[in-house]
Fold this sequence. Notes:
Layout: H1 3-19, E1 29-33, E2 40-43, E3 59-62, H2 76-88, E4 94-98, H3 101-107, H4 119-122, E5 129-131, H5 141-151, E6 156-159, E7 163-168, H6 171-193, H7 203-214, H8 217-234
Parallel strand pairs: 5-6
Antiparallel strand pairs: 1-2, 1-4, 2-3, 4-7, 6-7
Helix pairs in contact: 1-6, 1-8, 2-5, 3-6, 6-8
Amino acid sequence: MNEEQIRIDLAAAFRIIARLGMHEAVANHFSAAVSADGRRFLLNRKWQHFSTIRASDLILLDADDAGSMKRGDIDPTAWAIHGQIHRRAPHIRVAMHLHPVHVTAISTLADPTIKPIEQNTARYFNRVAVDADFDGMADSENEGARLVALLGDKSRLMMGNHGVLVTAGTTGEAFDDIYTLERACQILCLAYATQQPLKVLSDDIAEKTARDWEGISDFSIAHFEEMKRILDHEDPSYAD
């Protein structure tokens, strides 16, 4: 996929997330690699609301350029996290860091495990790394490196007392994952709120369900493409 299409897709993801109310004022960031080695990547500029982002607004950065931390148009926390992701994990093409309400609520629990109680929550069975050492704003390269190391061989990181990081091979897959992750945590929050015992799925059923999810990446792509079609009809300016 060429840089122009990656720009368009990433801009669409920002707009869709804003429409879904999963953004956080003018904070949070998405990035997407555009070079084969993963080190050149696109990032949203500092303090621009997701609902206004256009493809042309995205900034092209080099993960090896340490001077980016001091740029006035780059949030230091964005560079700390995404710069290190694209420097240290070239297999990651897209990274989304958000503070969605329900995911963040689960991240504050002493046990932030997404318990498999239905098929959305089961998607994440044994598939989410956990950071239990929140230490304030992630605004240093060392902190970014620590988060990448915690991610390990998983594609999602529950950032305790903070939010979540989702990574994927395409923008569509990352978008659908963050959407379903928030939905799963919303369901779990509502189940917890009943104060009734949870009927947790067996490990075998949860694992089978998670594997079934992993076999339908085309579902994720289709979800994203359908959401883009809505944007194309209602406000195609994201692609400018």
